[in-house]
């Protein structure tokens, strides 16, 4: 009888939950099993795996077959690595203490990786929650503003009927088209002035004629 380590499906639709069992390879998948070795929950992130390490290691060392999923789970939990180390001890490659030391180092590194992944997922989840909360607050604020605008509509003031619009009384005078300026007339070249005529020499004035002496009055006075 060949023993096979495999999964049995349980849980609701969309929320699968599996049992890890050692069963007869001829049995149905969800039928009878020899021993339950643990559980596997793929819905959680990271997946939750809980197994009986020693009993699972026993079935692996005695040659139990494994399904692909079961092999991946046992490798993740270190069962296959521990089985490999025990085979090395049997062959004399190293002592049992050295094997335990190597396994402890591997297990510690594995736990650190898992914890690092959990921390990263936690930060991403917190960031997503904060963004979702911010979006919800903005949506609520927009709804409140729309409701307030609906309850208190803004009424535009109509212009007063008595007041006529102001009319600009100044008649608009069409501006006459600008008269094009006549082209400037070129100035005639300046005429050269004739040379000045020399003045004739002044004529000497004749000498003044001396007046004749007055004649003496010879008439005698009358008595």
CATH architecture title of one domain: 2-Layer Sandwich
* CATH top-level class of one domain: Alpha Beta
Give the % helix: 25-40%
Shape verdict: elongated
By DSSP, the count of extended strands is 5
Low-confidence stretches: 205-223
User: Mean pLDDT, as a whole number?
Assistant: 76
Note the total helix count: 4
* SS strand fraction: 5-15%
Main beta sheet strand tally, sense and closure: 5 strands, mixed
Radius of gyration: 65 Å
- Class derived from helix and strand content: alpha+beta
The succession of helices and strands, N to C, reads: EEEEHEHHH
Major sheet strand order: 4-3-2-1-5
The CATH topology of one domain is given as S16 Ribosomal Protein, Chain: A
**Terminal Cα span:** 220 Å
CATH superfamily of one domain: Ribosomal protein S16
What does this structure look like?
α1 (53-61) packs across α3 (79-91) and α3 (79-91) packs antiparallel against α4. It is built from 4 helices and 5 strands. Strands 4-3-2-1-5 form a 5-stranded mixed β-sheet. With 223 residues, the chain is α+β, with helices and mostly antiparallel strands.
């Amino acid at each position: 009888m060949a023993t096979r380590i495999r999964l049995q499906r349980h849980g609701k639709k969309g929320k699968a939950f599996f049992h890890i069992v050692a069963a007869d390879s001829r049995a149905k998948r969800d039928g009878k099993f020899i021993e339950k070795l643990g559980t596997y929950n793929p819905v959680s992130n990271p997946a939750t795996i809980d197994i009986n390490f020693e009993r699972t290691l026993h079935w692996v060392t005695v040659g139990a077959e494994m399904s692909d999923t079961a092999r991946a789970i046992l490798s993740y939990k270190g069962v296959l690595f521990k089985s490999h180390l025990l085979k090395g001890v049997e062959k004399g490659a190293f002592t049992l203490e050295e094997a335990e030391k190597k396994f402890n180092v591997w297990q510690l590194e594995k736990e650190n990786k898992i914890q690092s992944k959990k921390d990263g997922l936690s930060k991403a989840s917190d960031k997503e929650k904060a963004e979702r909360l911010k979006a919800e607050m903005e949506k609520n604020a927009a709804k409140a503003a729309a409701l307030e605008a609906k309850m208190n509509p803004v009424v535009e003031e109509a212009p007063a009927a008595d007041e006529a619009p102001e009319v600009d009384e100044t008649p608009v005078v069409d501006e006459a088209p600008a008269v094009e300026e006549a082209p400037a007339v070129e100035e005639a070249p300046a005429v050269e002035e004739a040379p000045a005529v020399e003045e004739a020499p002044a004529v000497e004035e004749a000498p003044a004629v001396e007046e004749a002496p007055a004649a003496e009055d010879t008439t005698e006075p009358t008595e």
